[in-house]
Amino acid sequence: MRLAVDAMGGDNAPESVLQGCITALDTYKDLQVILIGDKDKITPYIEQSDRVKIIHTTTVIDADDSPVKAVRRKKDASMVQAVQLVKDGKADAAVSAGNTGALMTAGLLIIGRTRGIERPALSPMLPTMEGKGFLLLDVGANMEAKPAHLVQYALMGDVYMRNVRGMDSPRIGLLNVGAEAGKGTELAKAAYEELEKMPLNFIGNVEARDLLDGAADVVVCDGFSGNLVLKTIEGTALSLFALLKDELTSSLKNKLAAGVLKPAFKRVKNKMDYSEYGGAGLFGLNAPVIKAHGSSDAQAFFSAVRQAKTMHDEKVIDTIRETIEATKKSEEQL
């Protein structure tokens, strides 16, 4: 597999990006990496070889750049070139920890949507208490959605969980303010009716408070609601760990207790650590594009690379396309 990597995207680039790539190259012997970025900053960490190609550029899309303007004006930026390589057939997938909006825009303008998908979704795996995690679609690609979009999210999520996570019958839930049918906005009510008709394991509405308990394997919602859920989970986790750290180091007695409980705390942290779950897939594009977390360390970026490779190896994009087409034909025959 040939992977295009935006070496300059993210808070910890290029070091964490390159270290993650080195781990991936050691793990997957069939992986080839194309690094796009400042060669002078890349080569101290990794040298060009038969499995590593470096494309030099000093242009970067910054976090505060306007996505559409940046993609159109900075065509030599590391992120844009990574996506363009996929479009040109010189890479099979792309990964970036850079500007989310710019990556989404580049994916849409350059790679294009999967046939039958009206709106792509930004879709991360989030942790659950039992450690399996759940897929949330959408977390910000589209702030406004139609019922048909949520149905497409559900279909794409089902394909991903079957092919990448190995689930036989993923439970599909609709994010809502109550578990009862008929609850919520007009969008939620209409989507509920449509999802009930689909050949999916639709379990109905799920509430935000139950997500970390593993209430569903795939949760669909509009991008506005999904982004609120994502940021709330991230913020709560960071606050809780900070609170625990302050409390456990506040006295000698607490420090001694913390030393005894350190293995247990480490297991809890690992279970809830986003870095083990990979990045957010831009589902609905014509090729795998993964958005790694902006603050990704080496492990988190490796997980994003692993996600991109699995999506390519398991032909997730092709399966999504086939599933959407089969669903559309089925609806036309009714």
From TrEMBL:
Similarity comment: Belongs to the PlsX family.
The keyword Glycoprotein belongs to this UniProt entry's keyword annotation: no
Pathway assignment: Lipid metabolism; phospholipid metabolism
InterPro entries: FA_synthesis, Phospholipid_synth_PlsX-like
Species: Alkalicoccus saliphilus
Known EC number: 2.3.1.274
Keyword terms: Acyltransferase, Cytoplasm, Lipid biosynthesis, Lipid metabolism, Phospholipid biosynthesis, Phospholipid metabolism, Transferase
GO molecular function, one term: phosphate:acyl-[acyl carrier protein] acyltransferase activity
Complex formation: Homodimer. Probably interacts with PlsY.
Principal cellular location given in the protein's record: cytoplasm
EC class of the enzyme, as a word: transferase
Transmembrane region(s): none
UniProt-listed SUPFAM superfamilies: Isocitrate/Isopropylmalate dehydrogenase-like
One Pfam family of this chain: FA_synthesis
UniProt function note: Catalyzes the reversible formation of acyl-phosphate (acyl-PO(4)) from acyl-[acyl-carrier-protein] (acyl-ACP). This enzyme utilizes acyl-ACP as fatty acyl donor, but not acyl-CoA.
Catalytic activity, reaction form: a fatty acyl-[ACP] + phosphate = an acyl phosphate + holo-[ACP]
GO cellular component: cytoplasm
Name this polypeptide is given: Phosphate acyltransferase
Localization, UniProt: Cytoplasm
One GO BP: phospholipid biosynthetic process
